[in-house]
Structure formats: structure tokens, C-alpha cells
Write a structure and sequence with these properties.
heterotrimer, A mainly alpha (about 325), B alpha/beta (about 260), C mainly alpha (about 270), A: about 325 residues, B: alpha/beta, Rossmann fold, about 30% strand
Amino acid sequence: MRSYLLRRLLGIIPMLFGITLISFAVIRLAPGEPVSMESSLNPRVSPEVRQRLIQIYGLDKPLHVQYGRWIARIIRLDFGRSFSDSRPVIDKILERLPLTVAINALSLFIILLFGIPLGISCALREGSAFDKMMTVLVFIGFAVPSFWIALLLMNLFGISLGWLPISGIVSLDYEYMSFFQRCVDLARHLVLPVFVLSLGGLAGITRYMRSSMLEALSQPYIYAARAKGLPERAVVYKHGLRNAVLPIVTILGLSIPGLLGGSVIFESIFSIPGIGRLFYEAVMMRDYPLIMAEVVLVAVLTMLGNLLADIGYALVDPRIRYSQR
Amino acid sequence: MALLEVKELCLEFIQAEKTTPALKGVNICLHEGETLVLAGESGSGKSITALSCTRNLPHNARITSGSISYRGRDVLSMNTGELRELRGKQIAYIFQDPTAYLNPLFTIGNQICEAIRAHEDLPFRRAMDMSGELLERVKISDIKRVLASYPHQLSGGMNQRVFIAMGLALRPEVLIADEPTTSLDVTIEAEILRLLSELKKEFGFSLIFITHNLSIAGKIADRVCIMHEGRVVEEGCWLEISVHPVHEHTKELMRAYEEIGKL
Amino acid sequence: MNIKQNKMLLAGLGIIVFLSALALLAPLLSPFDPAHIEQAELLAPPSLRHPLGTDSLGRDLLSRMFYGARISLSVGLVAVGIATLLGIMLGSVAGFYGGFWDALIMRFVDVMLCFPAFFLILAVVAVFEPSIFNIMCIIGLTSWMGPARLVRAEILSLKEREFIQAAVALGASNARIIIRHLIPNAAAPLLVNATLGVSGAILLESGLSFLGLGVQPPVPSWGNILIESKSTLGVAWWITVFPGCAILVTVLAFNMLAEGLRKQGGTK
């Protein structure tokens, strides 16, 4: 297993190379120069200053040199300054990253908390009315545009019923609240966003667990376990479930891009100050340094998530942990 | 005395509105102390008959008529508790491809202990010791390593010994062996067969041995049941059948057996 | 499985055909021009004159929905066409030639899969201005990985089979082998994948249009009609409900078709 880990970790390097290459290529393929946006926002910029800007950003150098210089800078986490307010991009991202990560982590937790038992129940009641109903719900869950559900729920809970707030993560008078009130306030604000973010993943995990469980329960070792005289509960939960849940670790890794991508829309709808919303604003303002930084960051996060998932799986499955010599 | 009796057993598989009959009136009788070989080609219904004896059937299989009795008790009407008693404690199984029939996520020791503690209320330590003793009985050396290993780390032959140890842990009266050597090398096969004979003498169980290989039947059988397309077509002691086969199918099988013998 | 018994497939196909008809016949079916503004009827609820109501500029929603169907379906189909074509090309090269090319292309796939589709698409939209054509291309260019893997897997499993060896022995060129023998075997899973791809593309396009970075107003797309729903929440329910339902039904139809096709092909 050590060789597996080593290979996986070494594999990060070409991945990082690929990620930065594609991020670079996407932005630099722009017709026109990125500088033009910055300088055209400021009408007092003279051609000489523009030329200097071009030189500073190294835009007059060949592409591979530009790429090399950019890499050299981002290794030091220097992503340049934002076009909109000249603050270091890395600062802007770091101050918003924890929130997005927290919300996504919470969603992931909820997806697992509800999805796994639901999937198992469906498998154990295969063919029943419950199972059929869940299949229909899952199907609809896959088809629903999530931002639309967000709008509908905002309408229902936020406006019609007035139970939940529909924007931001804290109320205006947050500062004046007690600790307990703050917790409740935060929770109330997060209910809708987290719920909506979880819906898509919930459908997926339920369906996956169902088929994983059904497959596990048809394996030979289930018959052997039953033949030993084990109570059915032990057969299903100790033998079946363990095997069925194992691959979930990798599924988690695979759902990270979906969650992060979804953040762009959700944070915009619910006015949550996370990196998704930051990205949206950057795109609207053609803030290229910020855009590039976020694209790289999000890809790296996904890659790390997958890496963790693979390592986790290798640790948990004895067939990989103790691979045959 | 008839230990296990299967009478006119009919079973069908249900697949998406279609039913396929698999057993069409199977009759089998296992007497105390004997080795009964259930022979026949693939698909003749041998394995499913064996699994039916403890009602360890897949979801889509259904027994439609007939009876199964163990020591006179009707298996088909047993409740969950009685079935659990039956399984493992009175009737034990070993399967083809032992590595697939062991759970890949648990150690050997864990799985043998589980078999023991399913019926005996023993502390884990004691069960583990018993497991070690059992592994000794099936001629496994390096017991500590094997107990701590996972099934994929051991060979097929080794895993089959483990299975045998697990099956005999509670001294069952009947051992049903479903093609236990089919997926093993010939040399290993011989070892396992020898082991089974010795253990049978030592532990005193009755054996149902399922195979499609008649040469094995010749070596170990007291009596033989030939199965074909869901029915037992011939039945009797090995000597008689090999010399005077009655049913068409048996004659075919014998012919094939002799052909290979002549080679 | 008999096609006539495959309810999923028939239902999905039926809905899609119906929607396609609506889309194709949009000019004939629309009571109003989708850009036609009626000052007198801003944000009017559904009525006989305007069966689905009007938006904040007084435009008839029903007409806009018909034209929106055109956008959604065409974006979906073209984007998936691009993705599948690209995927087939790259997957065939990777699977057939193996070695360096396989490693390179698969690495490329792994890297592309690290980018959440939305981020990459939005980054490109920031660089190239949003237009329907651009949207189709960019969705296609970020969705080829699935088909590529499929084709590659199919080719890898078939490469060693006898009928391929026979073709090689008969002197068939590589391209011919790939196109005539290998790819058709991947047709079934590719079709399922493509169908699901269309529903994914429709969701992506509507999400993009909703953010204002997809199809630009005044061209109506179900996604960009929903832009107004943010500001008319609670006041004009029809602006939120109808486009959303349309997207839901369309995506559902394609998903059902995919499921039906999967069952038809025998895989599970």
C-alpha cells in the first residue's frame, strides 16, 4: 500500500501542472489584452502607462514565459491584485473560503446522514411501495433545477410564511445579540441554503447506496454468513452494510466539484459572502486575476478532495491496505 | 436412520413476472453416518437443493411444494429461531470458491469466531482460542498469521480449510459440501478430499458432497444421487450405479467417466 | 425487452417529441411576438389573453416559453453533439493507440474533471462574451470526458477480440477499424450517456442564463426568464413556476429516455 500512496502523491505534480496550464490557457485565450479592461476603466491612463502595465504584467513576453512567471508567483501564493479594488487576490479569497467550505461540509454531512439510511431502506424494501416512491422522488430530484427550488423555497418560507430569512448569513442586528441568539440566527439563515445544496447530492447518494446495498446482499459471503446461523440482522448489517458503504468514501470525493460549482448560484441567490459569489462578481467585472486564482483554487480543492477520498478508501479496504505480495 | 429427507421438492425462480421451475420433484435421503454424493451437470439443481435444506435461498426463489425434514422435523415450517439453530449447529456448509464466500472485510479469526459465537455464548478470547484449535485440526500451520489474515491474502486451498474449520466448529451432524474442490488445483483437491475423509471419521458427521466430477464420487461415495434438469433421475449405492446404470442420463455420465478413465 | 413495454423510454420520448414540436412550431403557436411589449399589462397574472401571464416588461410569457424551448433543446443537442464527437475522437485514440497517448489523454481527462463545470464555463464566458453559440461550444468542451472514457473502455475491451484481429489481418487501416468496428459497439452506452448529457446541458444553460451569463435577453431562455423571479418573488408566481416546471419536465423526459435506453440495452 505504501507504493500506492507514493504513486498517488507523486501524481499530484502533473495534476497541478495540468490544472494551472488549463487555467492559464482559458484566460490567456482572450481576444484582446487583460490590461485593456483595467486601463479602459480608467480614462486617464495614457498610452505610456498602458505600455508600462503591459510590461509589468509581462504581457509582451511569449506565452510560455508568461506561464512560467505566473507559476513562479502562484507557488508563493501570490495571485496578484484584484482589478476591482487592488487588494491582494489571495486575501480576498481566504477571507471568504472558510464560509463556503463550512456550508459545503455541512451539506455533505446532511447528504450522508439522510442519504445512506434512505438508500439502505430502499434496498431492504426492494420493490415495495416505499422503494418505488423513493425511486420516483430520486428521479425528480435529479431533474429539478436546484436554483429554481431555491427560489420556490425562498418564496414559501421566506416570504409567504416568513419563517426563515432569505439573504445573508446573519441578520443586521447580529452584533447586538447574545451568543445563543447568534447561534440561532446563524442557523436560521443557513437552513435554506444548506438544504437546497444538499438536495441534488441526496438523490445521488440514495440511489447509489441502494444499488450498492443490493449488490452487496447478493454476494456469496452473505449466503455463507446466513449458513453459519447468524441472525438476519447481523447478516444484513454486519456483512452487507459494511461492504456496501465502503465505496461511499470515493463518491464523496467525486461530489466535491458539483458542490463547489453549485455554490456559485446558491451564494448569489442567498447573498452569502463565499467564494462562489466572489467568483460570480469577478466574472461580471472581468477581474481576471481573481478569476484565474479561483479557477485554480477550486480545481486544487477538488483534486485534494479526491486524493483524500482515495487514500481514505485505501485505508479502509483491507484488499488494498494489505495488497498481495 | 434417515437424517435429512427431501420429498418431492419443487422450486421455482421468479424473474420479472416470469417463473422458471428449477426443481421438479426432488427426492433425497441422507442416512446417518453416510457420504451421499449429489452428482449432475451444471444447472441440474444440485446447489439449490442443498441450499433449500436450510432455506438459505435467494430472494427470487420460491419453494412451491414438497417437504424437507431434518430428524423428522419439518424444515419448511420452522420459525426463525429454529432455523438459526439448524444452520451452523446442525447443518453446516462449505462452498465452491471459498475466497468469494468469505467476507473480504473481516479477518479469518473474526469470521470463525463469529461462527462460534452465533451459537455459543463465549467470550471473544475463548472463541479465538477455539478458532486456533480448529485451524490446527484442519492441518494449518502458522495459525496466528492465518487468524489475522484477510481472505484475499490466503490461497484458495487455505481458505477452504478455513471454511471446513468454520463448518465443523460446532460439531454439526450434517456437512453439505457444494463443489468444494472444483475451483482448486488438482493436488490441493486431493488434500482437501483426504482431509474431509479423516475429519468425517474423527467428528462423525454425515456428508452430502455435491460435484459434477464422477471420479470423486467413485472415491468417497457410499450412495449417489444423479440429478438432471431439476430431478433426481437415479439413486443408489455407487457400485450398483457404476456397473448397472439405469437412466439414460446416468449412462451418458458413466460413458464420459469411462472415456476419460481409458485415456 | 420489447420496446413497446418499455414505458420509461416511450414516456420520455413522447414528451421530447411533443416539446420539439412546440419548439419547431414556436412561430406558429405563439400568440404574440416574444419581444412584443404591452405597457398596459405589466406583470399580469394568467388570463385568457395571456395564458401564462406576462413579465415585468409586459411580454407574453407563453410565447417566450415556446421560444425558450427552442433555445434549451438546441443548446442541449448541439452541446452534447460537440462533447460526444470530441469524446469519441479522444477516447478512440487513447484506447486504440494506448501507451503514451493513452496516458496523456487520460491525464487530461483527470485534470478536466477537477474543474467544476460551472467555474470553467463562467471563466470562459468572462473571456469570450456570452452568446448562444459560445454557450454551446463551452458546454460541449467541458463535457467530453464521459464519452471519452466510455469509448476508451469499450475499445480496450474489444481490442483483443478475434474479429478485430481478423480485420487487422485483412489489412484494414487503423481508422477503418476504429470507425467501422470498434465505435459502433460503444454506440449503446454512448447514446445513454448523450441523452443524460442533454439534460445536464439544459440544466447548465438555464443556470448560466439565470446568472445573466448565458443566453442574453431579449432572447428568451427558460433560465433567463427566471432572472425576474428573484425580484418578483411573492408578487408574480407565474414567472417563477412556469419556466421552472418547463425545465423540470424537459430534464425529466431526457432522464427517463436515458433510463429506458439503458434498460433496452440490457445494462443496469
